Amino acid sequence: MPKVKIPRKSTNIDMTAMCDVAFLLLSFFILATKQKPPEVLAVQTPSSVSSKAVPDKSIIITLTKDGRAFLMLGDETKKPEVLANINLTKGLGLSAAEMAKWGKSEFIGLPFNQIKSSLSAAPIPPDKLPGIPISDSTNNQMVDWMRSISNVYAGGNQSDLEKMILIKGDNDALYPVFKSIKDAFTKNDIYKFRIVTNGEAVPPGSELANSAKAANK
Q1: Helix, strand, coil shares of the chain as percentages rounded to 5?
Q2: Which of 31, 153, 188, 217 has its CA 20 to 30 A from that of 134?
Q3: How many CB atoms lie within 10 A of CB 145?
Q4: Is beta strand 59-63 parallel, antiparallel or unpaired with respect to 69-73?
Q5: Distance CA 182, CA 117 (A)
């Protein structure tokens, strides 16, 4: 008897469920990924073996190698209050429209006497900003900025504020520039802050490496 041949049929795989899973995973990673804070200017930070993550809502002070200082208010819920406080205490005379426009700026890098005029002009490129004046001890405007930040965060836990304050300084920045920032902190009773560094591996045989090895045993 002849052998019965079963007709072959093409395999049809429904990929709908797989596509749904792929898009769900993609959406999850997009929403869960922690974005790197924007930079006003690229700076070469020093290296360290610290591995602590940067807080999401950080107050970042950037110091360039040519001595300029910039401020970024990362907490968008508090940023309008800080700007309103500095507008009031320094008598900048900004209107509601000017305040709204100022609040959209990612970085602060102008002296007080240039802020109002800058809001009615074209945006200044970051590399052209003069920075917040800090070199003159009689006109260290970072003191005023830190005072307004302290006023807005008053009533909360001081240690929480100190954890949010970061200094991102270029490796070639001179110490007097860094000292001006420290003076701005101490004049506002802020004695702790963090420094942003480039992470590197713990040197083998160092005290830190030996203590970590002992802890893992």
Answers
A1: 40, 10, 50
A2: 153
A3: 25
A4: antiparallel
A5: 29
Q: Kindly state whether residue 208 falls inside one of the protein's structural domains.
A: no
152 DSSP 8-state letter: H
Between CA 51 and CA 49 the distance in angstroms is 6
CA distance 79 to 213: 43
Out of 47-61, 96-110, 136-150, 171-185, pick the least confident.
Answer: 47-61
Q: Which residues pair with 63 in a beta bridge?
A: 69, 169
pLDDT tens readout for residues 18-29: 767 776 766 665
Query: Do β-strands 47-48 and 59-63 pair in parallel, antiparallel, or remain unpaired?
Result: unpaired
> What span, in angstroms and rounded, lies between the C-alpha atoms of 64 and 45?
10
End-to-end CA distance of the chain: 75
Predicted pLDDT at 73: 92
**What's the structural domain count of the chain?**
1
Residue from 71, 73, 197, 41 nearest 134 by CA: 71
- For residues 148 and 199, the model is more confident at 148
- Residue 32, domain member (yes or no): no
- Kindly state whether residue 13 falls inside one of the protein's structural domains: no
Give the range of the structural domain holding residue 120, as residue numbers without chain letter: 47-199
